[in-house]
Amino acid sequence: MEYHSNTGSLFKQYSESAKKSKPQKAKETPEQDSTKEIVNYRQRYKNKRASKPSSDKPNSFKIDVYIAGMQHKISVSDPDQESYVQMIADQANRMIESISDSHPGFHMSNVLVLALINAIDEWNQSEHKRLTMTDLQSRFQSEIDNLKADYAQIREINWELKKEILRLKDHIEHNSKSREDAEALSKIEPLPLESLVFRFSEDNDSEDEINDDN
């Protein structure tokens, strides 16, 4: 009695199907080395460099000033400012000398700090005064504008009153002239024919009154 098993055939079938379903790897093609071929590039035409625009800087002028016994150079753009710079330097020098005289033992750095504080304090006070004056000026300007508006309104009312006075004057003159013309017409003596007509009419009126009485 022989025993036959089909495991071998089944294994063979599954192995062959696995081989068929397994994707095959593509053959790797060697990449070309891009560094082998080098192209030499040489620029034959060169653009001209654009020239930078020349900046016309204003000429600076040096002014020598003396503050606290030391010489300083101040740069200004306008030589006409020399007198103004000298005035400021003299004012700063007087302020420093005043503080040095008031505090003889102070170091120069302390003197300069006090001078700076005093200068800022004076500037703050002057700025406060300026703002106050500006506020007053704006108030005065507002009052002036209101007065101008009132004056324009009063002037318009005055003009309307003048026109009304002229109108009433013309009306009075016209009425007086009409009255004078009526009085003049009443004073004119009638002509003979007119007197006869008036007399005839008066006689007829008197006769009618007599007949009515009878």
List the helices and strands and how they pair.
Elements: H1 7-21, E1 61-67, E2 70-76, H2 82-102, H3 108-187, H4 192-213
Antiparallel strand pairs: 1-2
Helix pairs in contact: 2-3
Could you explain the architecture of this structure?
This protein has a domain at 61-83 and 92-146. Helix content is 64%, strand content 7%. The protein contains four helices and two strands. The chain has a two-stranded antiparallel ribbon with strand order 1-2. Helix 2 (82-102) crosses helix 3. The chain starts with 6 loop residues before the first helix and ends with a helix. Mean pLDDT is 75; it is low at 1-8.
Main beta-sheet annotation: 2 strands, antiparallel
- What is the overall pLDDT average? 75
The helix count comes to 4
Termini Cα gap: 195 Å
Oligomer: single chain
Q: How do the strands line up in the largest sheet?
A: 1-2
pLDDT below 50 for ≥5 consecutive residues: which ranges?
1-8
Percentage of β-strand residues: 5-15%
Structural class: mainly alpha
Strand elements, count: 2
Give the SSE order as H and E letters: HEEHHH
Fraction of helical residues: 55-70%
Overall 3D form: rod-shaped
Rg, Cα atoms, Å: 62 Å
Short description:
The protein has 214 residues and is mainly alpha-helical.
